[in-house]
Amino acid sequence: MSAAPWLPRWPGWSHLPRDSRDVLFLLAVIGWTLAPHFAHLPAWCPVLTIVVIVWRARLAVANAALPRRWPLIGLLVLAMGLTWWSHRTLLGKDAGITMLVVLMVLKTLELRARRDALVVFFLGFFIVLTNFLYSQSLLVAAAMLVSVWGLLTALVLAHMPVGRPPLARAGAVAAKAALLGAPIMLVLFLLFPRMAPLWAVPQEQLAKSGLSGSLRLGGVAELAVDDSIALRVRFEGGQRPPPDALYWRGPVLSRFDGREWHRPEPGALAAVQRSARLDVSGPALGYEMTLEPSRLPMLPLLEATPSREGDAPQPDSNLRPFLRADGQWATERAITERLRFTARAYLAHRRGPFEDDVSLRDYTDLPAGYNPRTLAWAAALQRRPELADATPQRYVQAVLAHIRSGFTYTLTPGVYGDDEGRHAVDEFWLDRREGFCEHFSAAFVVVMRALDVPARIVTGYQGADALPQDGWTIVRNSHAHAWAEVWIAGQGWQRVDPTAAVAPERIRLSQSLRPRPGLVAGTLNAINPALMSELRLAWEGINNRWNQWVLHYSRNEQMDLLQRLGWQAPDWTDLAYLLIALLSSGAVAGAAWAWWDRHHRSPWERLRARVARRLATLGLDVSPHEGPLALAGQVRRRFGEQGEDLAARLERLDAMRYGRGALQRPPRGWWSAFDRAASALGSR
Amino acid sequence: MIAALLGRPRRRLRTWWQARHPRTDTWTLTQRNIYIVPTHAGFVFAAVLMVMLLAAINYQLSLGYVLTFLLAGAGFVSMHLTHNTLRGLTLHLKPPAAGFAGFAGQALALEIVLSSPARLQHGVGLGFDDAPDRDHDVFVDVPAGGQASAHLAFVPPHRGLHGVPTLRAETRYPFGLFRAWTVWRPAAQVLAWPAPEQPVAPLPASPAAAGEAAQRKASDSGEFEGVRAYRRGDALKQVVWKKAARTGELVSRDTSSALQQQLWLDWQLTQLPGTEPRLSRMAAWVLAAEAAGVAHGLRLPGIEIAPGSGPSQQRRSLDALALWS
C-alpha cells in the first residue's frame, strides 16, 4: 500500500530495475549540481527544478512512460516566458544560466536513447562551470568535484549495457579515469598560457563587495557586515607601517548632488592632469599585494603610490593601470580576477596642485537647496571673532574640535534625511550626531565647502588585521573607510580623517567594523572567543593557500615556475614550447609502450607457437587458425593409436584454455610433459 | 583505363587488408589489430571543452581551467581504457556439436567465446561487420580470467559453403567518447543445405519407381513381391496373414527385400523448373523420409547415395544437395 496515491510503492534499492536505479542516481547528481545555483536563480526556477526532478523520480520508481513531446515543449515555452519575465532577456549571464538549468531539468524528462544521456552529461559539466562564476571557494570546489565524479559515474553506467553493474564499480572506473588524468590536468594547469579575457565580459551592474563608485549615507553600513577579504599585502623586509599610516586609496568622490556623492567627471580631471603632481620623499615602502576581484575598475593602493617606473604596479593581463589626477589608481576594465602585483609607496608625500587653480572651484560646489541648516551653521562659524580671516587649517581644527565635543561613533546610526533623502547632513550634524566614517567625512566635506575650502571624500580601506597570516597582512571589506581631503594653498591636498577625531581607536588600533556574528559562531564566540578566533584564522589560512596556489595561479606564477626551472627571461612562448615538449614526450612514451606491447604476446600465444613448432618437427602441417583440438585431430590421423597420448594432452590443453573454468595462463609442467611425449613419438 | 589504374592499388589494398586479417577461428586482440577513433560524442565533448576553456579565459576562472583540464585528462585516459577493454581479449569461434551446418534462410547460432586473461571487461559488443546498424550487436561482459559467450545468428542466404562473415568486436566503454573495434575473419565455413520446400510435396509415390523393384515384381508371377516361408523369429506383423488364411501355410514378408524397397529420391522425380526449387524439394523429401523412418537414397545427376536411414544418412544426403553443382 502506498502512502499517497501518486506515490509509487518503493521496491527497495536492490529490487529497483536497473534503468530506474540509474535514472535515480543521475537525478541525484543533477540535483546536487544545480543546488548551488538556487540561491541566485529567480524563485520559480528552483521550484520548477524540484518539481520536475521529483516527478521524474516518481516515473522512474513506478517504471511509467515518459511524457510526450508536446507537454515538454509547452513546459519549455513556459520556462522561457518566465525567464524573460525574470530577466527581461534570454541572453547574458544570469538569463543564460537560468535557461541552462531549465534545459537540463527538462531534458531529464526525455531520457530515452543514449544520445539524450550524453546531452545531459555535457550540460552537466557546463553547469558545474557556471557555478564557479558565483564562487570559487574551497567548499564549492569540493561540491563540484563530487558533481563531476557523479556525472562521470553516470556516463560509465550508460556504457555498461549488460546486467546490473553495481554503482560502486562504475564509480571506481570514473575515479580511476579522473585520477589517471590528474597528471595531464596538472601539466595543463601549470603550463597552459594564461591570457587576458579574449573579449569584454559583460560587467556587473552592482559592486559585488567592498567599495563602490558612489556614496550615499548608509551605503558603507552594508559593507560593515562583510567580513570577507578585500586584499592581502606583504611588506618588503617585513616592515609593517603603523596602522594609522595604512590608508588604501579607492574612489575619490567629489560631485555632490545633495543626496549622493560621485566621482569627478573625467573632463574635470583632464584639466588638472598636469598640475596634479604627486611629490614623494623619504624611504620607499615596497609591498606585494593580492587583490580579490572587486569588479571595480581600480586598484586600492597604499597611500601614496606614484606612477614612476619601479613604483607603479604592473599586474599582468590587459588592465593597464594608470594614476588619475585625483590620486586614484584606475584600470581599463573592472577587475574580475584575483590580481597579484608589487608596488612601492611613500608615506611622506604631497598631492598637487600646489597653486590655486580654477579647477579647484569644483571642490567647493554645493547643490542649492540642500542642508540649509548646516550651511547656516558654517556661516555662523565663519562669523566667530576668533576665526576671522582664519586659514583653512584653523577651520579644520575648529570643525574637528566640534566633532570631538559631542558626536558618537556607531555602526547603527539609523536612516538619515527626510522621505526624499534630502538634508541628511543637517540631521546628522545638528540633530542626532551619531554615525560612522562616511557620515563624518561627508558632513565634514560639506562644512568645509560651506567655508569655501576645497574638499573631497576619499573612500578606500583603512588599517588591516592585527595579526598577519603566513606573512600576509589581511585587509577585509570591513576595513572599508571614508575620509576627507582638503586643499591648502602651497601644500596641496591634505588628508583629514574626521572619524579619528571621534573614534581614535578605529584608526589607531585599526579595528575593523565587526560584523554581527551568526548563531553558531556567536555561541562559540560566547563560550570560547580564543578558540573561535583560532578556528577562524586556521580556516582563513587554508583559504589563503587555496587562493594563492589555485585561484590566483596566473601568468606571474607561470613565469616564476619557468624561472625556477632555469629559464632566464621566460615569456609565454617558452610556456607553449615546454607544454608541447611535455605532451609530445608523453606521446612518444605511449608509442614506445605500444611498440613493446605489440611484440608482447600472452603466455597462451607463446605456448601455442611452441606447440606448433614442436608438431612441425614431427612432420605435421600446422596452419595458423588451428586450435589445440584441431591439432589433436591431426595427430590422431597421422599417428593413430601411437599418437593417442599426445592428442589427449592437446585436448586437455584445449579444455584448459577454452573450457569451463578456463585458466588464465598455461599450467606449469604441461609443456615439459608434452615435449617428452612428442619426443617419444618422434623416436618411434 | 582509369579503372585499370585504380584496380591495382585497390587489389593491393585488399591483399594487404586480408594479410592483416588472416582467417582464423581464434583471434587474440593486440595493439596490432585494434582500431580506435573518436565517436560523435567524443567530438561534441571536445567542442564542449573548448567552450568551457573560452569561458574560463573570459571570466578568468581558475577553477574553470581546473575543470576543463580535469575533463580533458579523464577523456584522454578514457581513450586508453577503451582500447584496453579490447586489448588482450581472445575471441574463439566454438564449433557447434553438429558442425557449422544449417539450412539456407534459417538462422544458425554462432557461439563466440570471449576470454579475458587479466581484467574484467565491460560492454564488448559483437556483430557482423557488414550489418547496416549496430542495433543487433550482442553485448557481453567478460569476467577477469574467465570467459563469456555471445551468440550471433547467421542466416546463410543460399545453399553451399559460406565463409563465416567477417565479425566485428566493438566497445565504447567507459565514456563513449571513443570507439575501439577489431575486424575478425573466422576460418570456419558454414555449409548451408537447401532450404526445404514448404509445404512439403508428397514423397515420390512408390518404390516401384526403382527399376530393379519393377523387374522383380514382373518375375514374381503377380504375387506380392518379397514373400518367403515363415521362419522362427519372424515378427508377427511380418506375417502375411491374408495369404496364410488362404493357403494354410505361414508366409512372411521378406525383410531383406523390404530393405530393397527403398525410396529413391531422384532428381528426375522432382518435376520442377529450375535447379534450386528441385533441390529444395529433395531436401524436404529427405527430411520427410527420415521423419517417416523410411530408408531413402538420393540420386542426383552424377551423384548417387545408397539408401539408408538415420542421422548420418540424412546428413550425407543434405550435404550432397548443398554442394551439388
Summarize this, please?
Chain A is of the alpha+beta class. Chain A is 49% helix and 12% strand. Chains A and B meet through helix 5, helix 6, helix 7 and helix 19 of A and helix 2, helix 3, strand 3, strand 6 and strand 7 of B.
Keywords summarizing the entry:
heterodimer; A: 684 residues; alpha+beta; five-stranded antiparallel β-sheet; 19 strands; 49% helix; B: 325 residues; Immunoglobulin-like; 3 domains; 8 helices; 17 strands; elongated
Oligomer: heterodimer
Q: What is the SS-derived class of chain B?
A: alpha+beta
Residues in helix, % of chain B: 25-40%
CATH topology description of the largest domain in chain B:
Immunoglobulin-like
Share of residues in strands of chain A = 5-15%
Structure description:
The complex is a heterodimer of chains A (684) and B (325). Chain A is an alpha+beta fold and 684 residues long. Chain A has five domains: 13-180, no CATH class; 214-508, no CATH class; 519-559; 570-598; 603-683, no CATH class. Chain A contains 23 helices and 19 strands. Helices cover 35% and strands 26% of the residues of chain B. In chain B, helix 7 (275-292) runs antiparallel to helix 8 (311-323). Chain B is elongated, with a radius of gyration of 32 Å. The relative contact order of chain B is 0.11. The chains are: A alpha+beta (684), B alpha+beta (325). Chains A and B meet through helix 5, helix 6, helix 7 and helix 19 of A and helix 2, helix 3, strand 3, strand 6 and strand 7 of B.
What's the structural blueprint in terms of helices and strands?
The complex is a heterodimer of chains A (684) and B (325).
Chain A: H1 18-34, H2 44-62, H3 69-87, H4 93-107, H5 114-134, H6 138-158, H7 167-191, E1 214-216, H8 219-224, E2 229-235, E3 247-253, E4 255-256, E5 260-262, H9 266-272, E6 278-281, E7 285-291, E8 298-299, E9 301-302, E10 322-323, E11 329-330, E12 339-345, E13 348-351, H10 372-382, H11 392-406, E14 408-409, H12 424-432, E15 434-435, H13 437-450, E16 455-462, E17 473-476, E18 480-488, E19 492-496, H14 498-502, H15 504-508, H16 519-527, H17 529-551, H18 555-564, H19 572-598, H20 603-617, H21 628-639, H22 644-658, H23 670-683
Helix pairs in contact in A: 1-2, 1-6, 2-4, 3-4, 4-5, 5-6, 6-7, 10-13, 11-13, 12-13, 16-17, 20-23, 21-22, 22-23
Chain B: H1 2-20, E1 26-28, E2 35-38, H2 40-58, H3 62-86, E3 90-94, E4 101-103, E5 108-115, E6 121-128, E7 138-142, E8 147-154, E9 160-163, E10 167-171, E11 178-184, E12 189-193, H4 211-219, E13 227-229, H5 241-247, E14 251-253, H6 255-259, E15 263-266, H7 275-292, E16 296-300, E17 303-308, H8 311-323
Parallel strand pairs in B: 4-12, 15-16
Antiparallel strand pairs in B: 1-3, 2-11, 3-5, 5-8, 6-7, 6-10, 9-12, 10-11, 13-14, 16-17
Helix pairs in contact in B: 2-3, 7-8
